[in-house]
Amino acid sequence: MQNNRIASIDRFRGFAILTMVLVNYLGGVQLIPAWLQHAPDIGLTFPDLVAPLFIFAVGLTFSMSFHRRLEREGAFKTYSHFFTRYLAILGLGAAISAGETAIGENTSGIDWSVLQTIGMAGLATLAVIKLPAVYRWLIGVGILVVYQVILDNFLLDLTVHSPHGGLFGSLNWAAMLILGTALADLFHDEGRGRRIFPWTALGVLGAGIGLAFILPVSKNRVSSSYVLISLGISALLFLVFHWLATRFRWQARFLVVWGKNPLVLYFLHYLLIGIFFLPGIPLLYTAAPLWMVLLEVTFLLVGISAIALWMDRKDVIIAL
What we know:
The protein is mostly helical. The chain has helices at residues 2-26, 50-73, 75-102, 114-126, 133-160, 166-188, 192-212, 224-248, 253-260, 262-277, 290-313. The protein starts with a helix and ends in a 7-residue tail after the last helix.
C-alpha cells in the first residue's frame, strides 16, 4: 500500500507539471480558444485549475516529508532545509519573471511567477506545519476570511492586475497549501482518515461552490471561493489517480517519471519555449498555424520526457 500511495503521488505530480507545461505554451498562441486560456478575471477554466493541482501535489508530501526529516535530523536542520528549498524556489521564480519582463512578455509590469507563488506559500506553510491538522484547518480558513476582506476593501485592483495575484495573492495560495496539508494528513491515515478523505474533499468543494454565490470565482483575484473549489477538485482528482493505481494497478510510468523532478522540468520548459518565442517571429509562436503548434508541442513533450527519463535512469531526484 505504501508503494502504491507514493507512486500515486508521483503520477499526480507528473500530471500536474505536464498540464502546466502545456498550458504555459498554449497561453501564448493566438489560435487557442478562450476555454483553453486563463479566465481574464471572474470565471473558471481548466487552465485555472492547473496551478492548484500542483499546489495540492506539494501539500500531499509536505507534512510527511517534514516529520520524517525532523525525526532523522532534528528541528534546526529540518527547518533550515525547507526554508532554503522554498527560498530557492522563490528566487528562481523571481529570475524567471524578471526575464519575462525583460523580453516584453510580462505586459503588466509586475514581476510575479508561479514559482514565486509556490515559494511564498511554502515558507508560510513551514511556519505552521508542525501544528496538528485541526489547527492548520483553522489557520487556513482564517487566512481565507482575512484575505477576502482585505482584497475586497483595499487591494482588488492591484491584485487583479498582478500575475497569480502578486505578493498579496500569495497569502491565499498559502491558505490553499496549508489546507492541502491538512487534507493530505487524512489521506495518509489509512484508517478513519482515508475513509473520510473523499467526503472532506467534497465538503471543501461544496463550500467553495456555496461561497461562489457570494464571492466571484477568480484565479486572478485568488478569491477564497476559487481556492476552495480548486482545492476540492484537486483532491478528488488525486483520489481518482490513487483509485486507478490500487484497483487496476495502473502504472502510468510516463507520469511517474515526470513527477520525480518537477522543478527541473518546469524550468526546462521555459528554455524550450524560448526557442520559439525569442526570435520574435509571430508565425513561429504567437501566430503559429495549427500544424506548427502540434509540431512544437511534440517537440516540448519529447524533449522534456527525454530529460526526465535520463534523470530517472540515473536516479537523479531534485525534490520539490
